[in-house]
Amino acid sequence: MAARSPADDKARAAARKVSSARRVATLIRNCLREGRRVEIERLGEFRPARGGGFRFLPEHRPSIFLAYVSEDAEKVERLSVILERTGFDPWMDRRKLLPGQNWPRAIERAIENADFFVACLSRHAVNKRSCFQGEMRFALDCARRVPFDQVYFVPARLEKCLVPLRIEQQLQVINLFPELESAARRLIQFIRSEMRRRRAA
To answer: What's the predicted TM-score (pTM) here?
Structure first.
């Protein structure tokens, strides 16, 4: 049996990519024929057009990764709804992860691609050993690659609690209490202002 060369491996890999792309294109086409919309996260949405065909609406909504612990899920779910209603694209694992998806990699990719990382701090969150701690560390590493004058990591307190020293010494904290709905307006105003500043730069 002849040994495979690196060129053969490259050709096979390229053929697999083309085959995968064709399958995705066929799936999108079939969904559109059935009158369904197809959203591609962080890119936009394909929608059926009147009279046949389709149109593509590019994504313009700021994406916000919401990091939290399970004990705070209900509050963060409410925050996610408020942000979505305002025209933002919040990323919350329980709403975005798909069955069978490699969740650690999907979460890292979502953190890397987000316009903002909002760390939802509470007494539970700061004292618990959990994935939340790892997400914050990963986001702080991602923040090092963001242009120096842009805000990416936003610590947000859901209640009165201590803020981790590393964060407290470097970043301004926003309070989302005592009333979440009205307090969230400050976060929304900040994000809108930061996005305007980025576009003007």
So the answer is: 0.72
